[in-house]
């Protein structure tokens, strides 16, 4: 029986995950957490074979996002981490694998994908939701674990946007034209394979660009 710990700040999501995970009779949820602090506490006292976690779980003392993934990789290198996220894009996939996740499952994915992800990581393989695999093909990328790299100015623009500034405000602050800032934003989103501002802001927060 595989022992699984699940973490998500929404109780109803954890309920659904527990049902899906335990449905085949081969897995047992042995612990739950509603955020990074509680997750680290559960992991310190409960042995498990697989961790299924969201990474956008704000609050508490411990950072979420990619910082949490990196911490989990350092402290629990033998526990494969499956990331379940609503931000299902190539940028999230690449960065998550680069920070130690073994699988990325979209919250919008079919219920059958989570058990498939658990089976894959326990066999030493990686897993990505079908919608993410399609995006990888469309993006023409070969290495799914290669984290996207932004230039210094692109990172600066993304950070300021995510902190609440407008393109016009950024242009005035850094003494560049509005069209230049717009281009840098557009280029950053292309590099990250992100299509919406919401996903861009989520990437910025998960990457530690903004609190």
TrEMBL record:
GO MF, one term, reads: DNA binding
UniProt record, GO biological process: phosphorelay signal transduction system; regulation of DNA-templated transcription
Q: Which UniProt keywords apply?
A: DNA-binding, Phosphoprotein
Q: Where is the HTH luxR-type domain?
A: 143-208
Q: Which residues carry this modification: 4-aspartylphosphate?
A: 54
Q: Which InterPro entries match?
A: CheY-like_superfamily, EvgA-like, NreC/VraR/RcsB-like_REC, Sig_transdc_resp-reg_C-effctor, Sig_transdc_resp-reg_receiver, Tscrpt_reg_LuxR_C, WH-like_DNA-bd_sf
- The segment(s) forming the Response regulatory domain are 3-122
Annotated protein name in UniProt: DNA-binding response regulator
């Amino acid at each position: 029986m595989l022992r699984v710990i699940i973490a998500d700040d929404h109780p109803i999501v954890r309920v659904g995950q527990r049902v899906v995970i335990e449905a085949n009779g081969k897995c047992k949820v042995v612990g739950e957490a509603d955020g990074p602090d509680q997750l680290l506490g559960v992991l310190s006292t409960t042995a498990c074979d697989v961790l299924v976690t969201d990474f956008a779980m704000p609050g508490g003392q411990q950072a979420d996002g990619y910082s949490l993934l990196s911490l989990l990789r350092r402290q629990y290198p033998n526990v494969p981490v499956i990331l379940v996220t609503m931000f299902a894009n190539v940028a999230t996939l690449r960065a998550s694998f680069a920070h130690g996740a073994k699988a990325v499952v979209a919250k919008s994915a079919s219920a059958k994908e989570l058990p498939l992800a658990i089976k894959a990581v326990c066999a030493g393989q990686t897993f990505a939701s079908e919608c993410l695999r399609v995006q990888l093909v469309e993006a023409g990328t070969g290495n799914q674990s290669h984290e996207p790299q932004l230039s210094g100015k692109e990172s600066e623009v993304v950070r300021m946007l995510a902190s609440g500034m407008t393109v016009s405000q950024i242009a005035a602050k850094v003494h560049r034209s509005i069209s230049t800032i717009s281009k840098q934003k557009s280029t950053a989103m292309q590099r990250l394979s992100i299509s919406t501002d919401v996903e861009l802001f989520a990437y910025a927060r998960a990457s530690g660009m903004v609190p």
